[in-house]
Amino acid sequence: xxxxxxxxxxxxxxxxxxxxxxxxxxxxxxxxxxxxxxxxxxxxxxxxxxxxxxxxxxxxxxxxxxxxxxxxxxxxxxxxxxxxxxxxxxxxxxxxxxxxxxxxxxxxxxxxxxxxxxxxxxxxxxxxxxxxxxxxxxxxxxxxxxxxxxxxxxxxxxxxxxxxxxxxxxxxxxxxxxxxxxxxxxxxxxxxxxxxxxxxxxxxxxxxxxxxxxxxxxxxxxxxxxxxxxxxxxxxxxxxxxxxxxxxxxxxxxxxxxxxxxxxxx
Amino acid sequence: xxxxxxxxxxxxxxxxxxxxxxxxxxxxxxxxxxxxxxxxxxxxxxxxxxxxxxxxxxxxxxxxxxxxxxxxxxxxxxxxxxxxxxxxxxxxxxxxxxxxxxxxxxxxxxxxxxxxxxxxxxxxxxxxxxxxxxxxxxxxxxxxxxxxxxxxxxxxxxxxxxxxxxxxxxxxxxxxxxxxxxxxxxxxxxxxxxxxxxxxxxxxxxxxxxxxx
Lengths: 266, 213
Known about the structure:
The complex is a heterodimer. By secondary structure, chain A is an alpha/beta fold. Chain A is built from six helices and six strands. In chain A, helix 4 (about 170-180) links the parallel strand 3 (about 160-165) and strand 4 (about 190). Chain B has seven helices and two strands, in the order E-E-H-H-H-H-H-H-H. Chain B has helices at about 15-40, 50-75, 80-105, 125, 140-150, 150-180, 185-210; strands at about 5, 10-15. In chain B, helix 5 (about 140-150) runs antiparallel to helix 6 (about 150-180) and helix 6 runs antiparallel to helix 7 (about 185-210). The chains are: A alpha/beta, B mainly alpha.
């Protein structure tokens, strides 16, 4: 392949042969060299063109080789780009999808994950993460009709559940609409939340979205982005088992022990 | 090189336009290669609305309830046969949930489908009961009843509910086997079908045995 230069008049023809064949059959101005330079901008007075012996016989071997290598390289890059950005491709981005929900809050603080039987003070209301009870709240699409302890709910969020809470004065038809999104869907649960500052609030570990209406399309977006995906223990963490107790305070150590000794739960 | 011109002095000038064209062509070739090869080699990684993806998501939900039932039976079963049966089913199906969730990850798909559950099945909407419950699934009230049962009642309820659950599961397996040729999906679906059919017979025999005991 020739190394191209646009050196201009003062340069001597400077054809470097890569293939290394001697410039044997060189003829002046053959093979497409007939066209005079068009629009040479700085085109000053033309110097007489002195025939110079240059290698005009193209060395097609190297040209073909470099072309092929170039094509291959670009092709590989193209394939890589395609693989990375194809719709729903290798990096399915639930986090980006969550961030894209208008009004959502992503809490990035370092939440505790310790197990305790004590009551825990949480920074958010309803909470979205933190230390929690040994027992999780059963989140197999359970619709609880009374408040559930935060300490149990947080353990469910750690397992990838989305927890829908609503202010107790939410009209029954709105509650029913929410329940329809939860009933029978594992990694979902729902309960009233006294003192909630908005009619409805959705929680996943580290994420919260507060809305006014059960018809709000962002509820579906929140569930779609975060259910299972927000799990700190992967998609096989459990929502079955745990406990279904309602109330304000978490179960005591004795009560949790009773859960695991077969039955006796409220 | 598509667009080269020789200057009168024999310079080979590769124009910027030519280079851009070549690059664009190469990128297109690369993209179509990527697309084409993924279809051929990956036998087409299933799409978001495919039967395979729907099966993976919905069977996961279906299995999760079987795990719940099985764990209750393991902890509270009255007969040792029911306790063992519960353990066997819970562990097997929990493992299968892991396989199915890895499929979704490999396919670059979300755990959450954008459509309704069972939309991938031809009779999808008809088989849904009580809102989101798939074939054979128990209601929350039925699950509560199993959880709160004691003594022989645990065994009776468990066998009744799990037989129904398995029958629904086999129905879903049949639906994916009719639609899919994905080797991983059909392999697991077949082993689910064989396993659950055998367990249905086992549980029916166990019902008779326990009734006489």
